[in-house]
What we know:
This protein is 26% helix and 23% strand. The chain is an alpha/beta fold. The strands form four sheets. Strands 1, 2, 3, 4, 5, 6 and 17 form a seven-stranded mixed beta sheet that branches. The chain has a five-stranded parallel beta sheet with strand order 8-15-9-10-11. A three-stranded antiparallel beta sheet has the order 12-13-14. A hairpin with a 4-residue loop joins strand 13 and strand 14. It is globular, with a radius of gyration of 21 Å. It starts with a strand and ends with a helix. NADPH dihydro-nicotinamide-adenine-dinucleotide phosphate binds at residues 159, 193-199, 201, 218-219, 223, 281-283, 327.
Amino acid sequence: MPENVVIIGSGPAAWTAAIYAARANLTPLVFQGNPYDERNNQNGTLPLGQLALTTEVENFPGWPTGDTREYLRTALSPDDTHFPYWVSANKSQPNHGIQGPELMALMRKQALNVGTRIESKDVVSVDLKKSPFMLTMHDGSTVETRTIILSTGARANYLGLPSEERFKNNGVSACAVCDGALPRFRNKPIVVVGAGDSACEEASYLSKFATKVYMVVRRDAMRASKIMADRARANPKIEIRWNSVVEEVLGEDKLGVTGVRLKNTAKGTSEEIECSGMFCAIGHTPNVGFLNNQVKLNEGGYILWTTVARSYTSVDGVFAAGDVADDYYRQAISAAGTGCMAALDAERWLGHHGFA
Ligand code: NDP
């Protein structure tokens, strides 16, 4: 028998879809990805998604700052892979709201509790040409399913420097909204790399916390829309370094990032800038390779929602949720919202076709 609903992904969109599908008695099967594949580690595509790569999450409703240790202790079993170390070590976290990995572990737990089945496999290819659809996993196993919810997310692009890798989560970030307000970035200079709308937006946002924001732009022009670029230029706290690339992120293991070394490609000169962090805003890459162009994408390579305010894709019975189909909002809460929509859409599709 084919599955009713297969959900591919393991971020907030996937788990929200799973919670809704499971509560509709559809016994969803989630492919959360292979945690042992080094490529997933390198690409930032490990199970539990981008939130598992962040620290404090202050903007997900329901998790105010406060000591949630007791709640986590009872909600997660100690053998959970993301059981927070300070809970098991009985350490105090006085201002602790929720960390990204914990939020994801709790979402997964909630999905499990209501009857979701989870497999730690990467879906490497799909055949969407006939229904039921066929999925092939990294170990060669296959699964047939009547509906699919695609929620594989998008990965932030980084520069690819070894020094950048060393300080990820210790001053190097790709999400100002997620991390910008953390104490380490307050009242200190910050570097933003990129010159698109995201970079301008992140620089403007970070200028609320930082003493100064250096925008590192690799050409002598911005890619951003005029209005966003003008706003960044007019901000007295933002200083732009044109024709510049980051050669190395500087820092120490204990302190994290303390600066960056820039190279001016027009003049051939180098300079060191003191900063508490470096934010990469050089675009995202949606995780759609395994689809092999069987689902329509927009010009940015993200899955196209074919109907306004629905999670429908170009393939009947295939739905998309979260960042893999959203190059605009890219927030955990908006991903969760579209995950809910996709599960309801899949449920209705199954009902309409006489399967549920
Ligand atoms: P973009 O692709 O528009 O811009 C990426 C920027 O990063 C470019 O300036 C690019 O430089 C630079 N870049 C890429 N790779 C490197 C690298 N290796 N080293 C240094 N710089 C690099 O991505 P965005 O995320 O900014 O925007 C994505 C989409 O989302 C756009 O359509 C944008 O309009 C939209 N958006 C809209 C917002 C709004 O309206 N409020 C806010 C945020 C995004 P170069 O120009 O030289 O190629």
